[in-house]
Amino acid sequence: MSKKVDALHAAVQDMDSIGQGALGSISTIAKLTLAWLETPSAYAQWWRVADALESIQAIADTAEIDLSNTAQSVEAAHPNYAALRRQKAYEQAQLLSKSSTRPIAGGSHE
Questions:
Q1: Are 3 and 51 in contact (CB under 8 A)?
Q2: What's the Cα-to-Cα distance from 74 to each of 3, 21, 33, 52, rounded to whole Å?
Q3: Whose CA is closest to 77, among 86, 68, 89?
Q4: Which has the closest alpha carbon to 57: 35, 80, 25, 33?
Q5: What residues contact residue 109 under an 8 Å CB cut-off, 6+ apart?
Q6: Local structure of residue 36 (DSSP, 8 states)
Q7: Is the pLDDT of residue 105 over 70?
Q8: C-beta of residue 33 within 8 angstroms of C-beta of residue 49
Q9: What is the C-alpha to C-alpha distance for residues 66 and 72, in angstroms, rounded to an integer?
């Protein structure tokens, strides 16, 4: 196999590992939290649900970054179209500002 194919293969394996780890953890936290909510004691400590949600959010955020970084490492990341549109608009604004004439500061005021 070529180096590019080897790199893609390794990236896919890494992404599979990241996904399985993150989704498995999220599933476990959700199942435990839902089971706990079936007990009366859960409602005396309702803030623990928020703790579980924060854990899920942290796992998802980390997985998102790790997956994106892995895809970027083999030049296969999903493009951020909104960021690309903003970059294009910025570049167009720069061109327009260079081509427009500005009034000279300190001109006469009648």
A1: no
A2: 11, 21, 37, 34
A3: 68
A4: 25
A5: none
A6: H
A7: no
A8: yes
A9: 10
- Per DSSP, the three-state class of 14 is helix
Whether the predicted pLDDT of 103 surpasses 70: no
Q: Copy the structure tokens of residue 80.
A: 């951020």
Q: What is the pLDDT of residue 99?
A: 78
Q: Using one digit for the tens of pLDDT, what is the confidence trace for 57-99? A: 999 999 999 999 999 999 998 888 998 999 999 999 999 988 7
Residue 79 three-state SS: coil
- Residues 16-35 have pLDDT tens digits of 999 999 999 999 999 999 99
Q: Is 55 exposed, middle or buried (0-12, 13-18, 19+ CB in 10 A)?
A: middle
User: Length of the chain in residues, anyone?
Assistant: 110
Identify whether the C-beta of residue 33 lies closer than 8 Å to the C-beta of residue 55. no
Name the residue with tokens 């993150």. 22
Q: Which residue's structure tokens are 């936290």? A: 29
